[in-house]
Amino acid sequence: MALPAAPSESPAEPAAAPGLRLALSLLEEGALTSRADRSRRSHGARAVPSAGAVYPYEFAVLTMENGAPAAFRVDADRRTCTRLATGDVAGALHASTLAIPGDGGAVIVTLTRPWLSMRKYGDRGYLYTQLDAGHAAGNLLLATTGRGAPGTLRLRFPRLPLSDLLEAGENCREVHSALLVPAAEADDAWTRWTVHDGAARDGHAPTWRSWLEQTCWDSLSARAEHPGTDGAPDALAPLADLRDRRRAGGGQPGLGDPSEWPKLLATRASSKAFVPGTVPAADVWQAVSALSTPVRTDLPAASPMGATLVLRSAEEPGQNAVHPLTGEGARRTGRLPSADEVVRACMRQRTLAGAAAVVLLHAPRTALTDSAGDSAAGAEDLRELAFRCGALGQLLYLGANRARIGVTGVGGFDAALWHTLAGLPESDEILYVLMLGRPDDSGVKLDRLATAHAQNER
Question: Do 305 and 271 touch, CB atoms closer than 8 A?
Answer without folding.
Answer: no
